[in-house]
Amino acid sequence: xxxxxxxKDAFAKVARRYVITNHVLSLGTDILWRRKVARMVAETKPxxxxxxxxxxxxxxxxxSRACPGLNITGADFSAPxxxxxxxxxxxxxxLVEADAMALPFASESYDCLTVAFGLRNMARWGDAVWEMARxxxxxGSLLVLDFSLPTALALRPAYxxxxxxxxxxxxxxxxRQQDAYSYLAGSIEKFPSGExxxxxxxxxxxxTARAVPVSMGIATIYHAVK
Length: 226
Known about the structure:
Elements: H1 4-14, H2 18-25, H3 29-44, E1 48-52, H4 58-66, E2 71-76, H5 79-87, E3 93-97, E4 110-116, H6 125-135, E5 136-147, H7 156-175, H8 178-190, H9 195-202, E6 208-214, E7 219-225
Parallel strand pairs: 1-2, 1-4, 2-3, 4-5
Antiparallel strand pairs: 5-7, 6-7
Helix pairs in contact: 3-4, 7-8
């Protein structure tokens, strides 16, 4: 579904400015989305958590604040992104360079797994979710945060204009990598959302899944249980 070589190269090129670019493009709203995910994680009272596609460690940082003392493994296939995350010194976070399609962890190793803005970039979404289910213990939770299209149809034309015309130019100015963010816009359009995503999650190892739209559906949190 996605070209892993292109994705890995794109993230390597934007790693140093990835965090600030996200905050600018979302006007800081991405911070609030991650904090909501972290609160939802805290409600599950996990002992061991895997933050997949951890990138620069943004979500892992929020989770560590919401769950003091939690053992967090952050995994990503982009070494430059992990280098940035390592410099943030997130409490309780151990970083591992790993491919989400073939995780180097034993089955049922974690009682909570999170992935923010990462599933959309994986080569095959169903296979990636199945691998997430493999390393999640029975009764454990999966929380996926990713972009989606606004729930109100009237907002979609304006959102698509921003997504395809404004966002790549602004991000290109900040990172000097406009192609990476042109890809981002297209990937959001193709990515399943709402009940379609819940169906995909339930078909690949999880027994329940629900969608929680945030910011009028610009992003969605999916909470699943194995």
